[in-house]
Amino acid sequence: MSSEDAALEALAVLGDPVRRGLYRHVSGTPDEVGRDAAAEAAGISRSLAAFHLDKLVEAGLLEVSFRRLSGRSGPGAGRPAKLYRRAEGERAVSVPPRSYDTAGRLLAEVVERAGLDGELQAAARADGEAGGEASGDGTDPVEVLRARGFEPFWDAGTLRLNNCPFHALADQFPALVCGMNLAGIEGLLAGLKGGQGWTAEMDPLPRGCCVALRPADDEN
C-alpha cells in the first residue's frame, strides 16, 4: 500500500465522530491513556471505547503498550493494562498529491549550509509577532498555541507543548528548526496582548516540542 493510500485510509477511520474524539483525547494527553479513562472522556462504555481505540491502532494512528497501573509486580498484581498513545508516524494527504515536505527539506538544507540561522529566526519572530497582534485583545496564549497545533498542557508551573508541528523537519535539522520554533513563539508572545509576562525557552520533551513556556508569576 502506498503512503498516500495509507493516509486516505487513516482519514476514513477518523470520519467516525466517536473515533475522532477518542483520537483527539489520546493525542492531546501527554501520558498514555487507558480504556477506562478514554471511555470516560468520550462519554461511552468501556467496551465501545476499546473497539474504536483498536480501530485507530489498526489504522496506524495510535500505538499500544502494556503496563500494570498498580505499580505492583508478581502474583496478585493483576493483568497489565492496555494503554494507548499517539503514533509517532505522520499521516498527510493532498489531492492532487503535493510534495511540501520535499520543499521544506530542501529549503532547510540551503538555510543550514548558508549559515542563515539568524535570518530565519528573525523572520520567524516577526511572523509570530504579526500573528499575535492579529489575534486581538485579551487572547489567552494557551488557546493560541492550541489553535496552532502545539497541544499545550500544564506540568506544574510549566506550560509544555505535546506536539511539534514541524516534527519531520525537526528530526532532520534539530538546531535549525528548534531555533526557528523558539523565535516564532517568542514573537507570538510579544505580539499577544495577553502574552506579556510569559517567557519561552528550550526545554525539549522526549515526545513533543522543544520549547516550554512559563508565566512570570509561575501560576497556571
Automatic annotation (TrEMBL):
Pfam families: HTH_20. It comes from the Bacteria. SUPFAM superfamilies: Winged helix' DNA-binding domain. Residues 122-141 are annotated as: Disordered. InterPro entries: ArsR-like_HTH (IPR011991), WH-like_DNA-bd_sf (IPR036388), WH_DNA-bd_sf (IPR036390). This is Helix-turn-helix domain-containing protein. It comes from Streptomyces glycanivorans.
